[in-house]
């Protein structure tokens, strides 16, 4: 048994114990005395009703859900999976409406997600359903304030598909249960262990071969490879225009290199103790390494300015980018597709996590089965039963297919009982990448409150000429013990953590970027750590430690 599987096997009994503990914690719904006002949705007050005439069962859920068309409101920011003006333009949601007889009035924010979400939650005018990327930490806070409905009873009564998932995978319940013992949101789920890896290091392997190099194994190998990319003209145009390492943000580069020095850019666990990377003396070595790359123009000098996927794509497809840290489909797959017929030798390969000078080597960009992003139910809704049934539909076999593959006959066909994308989706001729084209059809199984279907990634890889799963190489570098689990804070803990971390994160981002770019010296890194202590990082870590030990069942 490899390291990752062994540690996951050890983790499951602990999570199961947590389920038992939180289930025994029952109690009130903690709505803080805030009476729920009816939402603006049309229709009558929710009542338990007999199945609609002519309905059919989808995993125990009867559809259509209602006899008369019902409108529900759902807030979601526009984001990477947003195309057009409304999610209802996606064929999957159109079909979902036909199947359930529920129309979703999407409320899309074009502002930055965090700010827009904060404004929504403080407005008092909440829709029926709310999407958030950070329910893992936010749901308990807003649940105890009375803004969200506790869902465990609704799940038991009206969500047979989701309830079966919880019964079949009991560790998931612990990952989404608040400190008070409530479930306030339904998450995106990944059930196949090989799909837990998210982003990973990717290298122009054709450049590596052309220059007679080997794929990098250590941080020093990375330095030497990037230096060769910069100085030896691997794109062959006679110009020194190569940008060896590109990124859209500092976080991605930190995920690549910080673990090689024994730390992370954020919170992590070290022998059972929660730590914050920038507050660890080893973090100085990370900054020194990245400063070395920046000073020698091996790290993109415009990484603070060129922060969109479009700018990164342009650098890759104009043959100047040598390496990056990104996703399998939207990065590796799309770049390969875009260069088909334009560059005969263009080739990308996945690189293992670099080993640091002290032997540290970990892959940190992986997720737990239950993600922090998903859908919560507002306490303002007048239709809790119908809302829960609509949410449960997302986890039915039919809903999973819609969310991952789109509509049969439009974006995919069933071949021997298996969904297979159409040629016009995997190889579009309209100027879009296959991922972009798929977003016309559906939202994507990894970005919604549903189950991510592993067959999606397999087919996109095959369409992009990848015969093997590049994520397989990371399973032996995943350490669940060092990964901070999706802890949830009590209201009191949140009151301490949120305001302190707002200032700390701003300070860290400004300071670390300045040191990487040479505007500030990293030689006396003790000053940064002293400043973090003065800003309250010690108090923050106390709350994280308490939440972590509560999660682990201690």
Automatic annotation (TrEMBL):
It comes from the Bacteria. Pfam families: SBP_bac_1 (PF01547). Gene3D superfamilies: Periplasmic binding protein-like II. Residues 1-24 form the signal peptide. SUPFAM superfamilies: Periplasmic binding protein-like II. Keywords: Cell membrane, Lipoprotein, Membrane, Palmitate, Signal. Residues 29-43 have a biased composition (Low complexity). InterPro entries: Bact_solute-bd_prot1, SBP. Residues 29-56 are annotated as: Disordered. This is Extracellular solute-binding protein.
């Amino acid at each position: 048994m490899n390291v990752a599987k062994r540690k996951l096997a050890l983790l499951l009994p602990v999570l199961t114990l947590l389920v038992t503990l939180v289930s025994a914690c029952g109690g009130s719904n903690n709505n803080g005395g805030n009476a729920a006002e009816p939402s603006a949705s049309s229709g009558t007050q929710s009542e338990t009703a007999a199945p609609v005439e002519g309905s059919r069962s989808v995993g125990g859920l009867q559809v259509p859900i209602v006899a008369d068309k019902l409108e529900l409101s759902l807030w979601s920011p526009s984001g990477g999976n947003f195309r057009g003006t409304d999610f209802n333009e996606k064929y999957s949601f159109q079909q979902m409406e036909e199947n359930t007889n529920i129309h979703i009035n999407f409320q899309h924010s074009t502002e930055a997600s965090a700010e827009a979400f904060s404004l929504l939650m403080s407005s008092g005018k909440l829709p029926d359903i709310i999407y958030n990327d950070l329910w893992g930490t936010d749901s308990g806070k807003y649940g105890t304030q009375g803004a969200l409905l506790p869902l465990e009873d609704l799940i038991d009564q009206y969500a047979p598909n989701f309830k079966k998932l919880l019964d079949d995978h009991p560790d998931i319940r612990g990952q989404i249960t608040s400190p008070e013992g409530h479930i306030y949101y339904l998450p995106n789920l990944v059930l196949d262990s090989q799909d837990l890896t998210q982003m990973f290091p990717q290298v122009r392997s054709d450049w590596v071969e052309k220059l007679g190099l080997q794929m990098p194994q250590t941080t020093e190998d990375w330095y030497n490879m990037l230096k060769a990319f910069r100085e030896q003209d691997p794109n062959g145009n006679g110009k020194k225009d190569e940008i060896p390492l590109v990124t859209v943000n500092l976080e991605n580069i930190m995920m690549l290199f910080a673990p090689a020095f024994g730390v992370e850019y954020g919170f992590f666990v070290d022998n059972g103790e929660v730590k914050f990377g920038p507050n660890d003396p080893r973090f100085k070595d990370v900054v020194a390494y990245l400063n070395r790359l920046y000073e020698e123009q091996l790290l993109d000098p415009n990484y603070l300015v060129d922060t969109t996927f479009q700018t990164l794509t342009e650098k890759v497809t104009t043959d100047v980018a040598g390496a990056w840290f990104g996703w399998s489909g939207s990065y590796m797959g799309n770049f390969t597709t875009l260069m088909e017929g334009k560059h005969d030798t263009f080739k990308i390969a996945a690189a293992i996590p670099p080993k640091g000078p002290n032997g540290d080597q970990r892959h940190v960009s992986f997720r737990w089965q239950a993600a922090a992003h998903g859908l919560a139910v507002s306490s303002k809704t007048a239709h809790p039963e119908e809302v829960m049934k609509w949410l449960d539909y997302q986890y039915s076999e039919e809903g999973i297919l819609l969310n991952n593959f789109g509509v049969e006959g439009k974006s995919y066909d069933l071949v021997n009982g298996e969904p297979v994308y159409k040629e016009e989706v995997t190889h579009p001729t309209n100027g879009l990448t296959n991922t972009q084209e798929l977003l016309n059809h559906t939202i994507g199984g990894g970005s919604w409150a549903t189950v991510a279907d592993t067959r999606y990634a397999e087919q996109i890889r095959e369409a992009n000429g990848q015969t093997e799963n590049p994520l397989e190489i990371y399973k032996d570098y995943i350490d669940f013990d060092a990964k901070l689990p999706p802890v949830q804070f009590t209201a009191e803990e949140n009151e301490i953590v949120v305001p302190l971390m707002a200032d700390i994160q701003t300070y860290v981002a400004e300071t670390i970027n300045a040191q990487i770019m040479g505007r500030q010296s990293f030689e006396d890194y003790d000053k940064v750590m002293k400043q973090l202590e003065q800003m309250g990082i010690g108090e923050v870590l106390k709350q994280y430690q308490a939440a972590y030990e509560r999660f682990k069942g201690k």
